[in-house]
């Protein structure tokens, strides 16, 4: 028995994927009667059930989902890049503490926003697949769609590694910045 009703007009579940898992492919078809809530519900069901590949034909829903995932990825990368930039700024320009503090603040802020808004979301477990040839082997129905958005489930260990790395970089940047500030204030007290 599949996790999604195969009799739905807008969803089709193909359990014959290449690795033999039951998670298969969910196809969310475009509805032309204006009921976007049904599409949202079907996408949520597919995400919650951990479907390996989700093909979204509905343009609005597909674009919104791809944008949501892209913003989450951007926040993740911004957190890491600004954290590393903060550490490098502290090493290269030790006299420019304001630059280091700003970069650390941005890293912590984007890490916090990502944690609160994206890390707990089911969409976080997916990536937008851009290589259609990679998906074509798993989904025979892909040619029936007009410019679909294809989501593939990410590995749990990959996500956990990314979250740990992102948080570690932000915390290391915070600790390094705090140490540099403490050291500069301690030096200022001795001079005065």
From TrEMBL:
Superkingdom field: Eukaryota
GO biological process entries: inner mitochondrial membrane organization
Localization in the cell: Mitochondrion inner membrane
Keywords: Membrane, Mitochondrion, Mitochondrion inner membrane, Transmembrane, Transmembrane helix
Pfam families: Mito_morph_reg (PF14972)
Transmembrane segments: 163-182
One cellular component term from this protein's GO annotations in UniProt: mitochondrial inner membrane
Protein topology in the membrane: Multi-pass membrane protein
Family: Belongs to the TMEM11 family.
Reported function: Plays a role in mitochondrial morphogenesis.
Protein name (record): Uncharacterized protein
Native source species: Oppiella nova
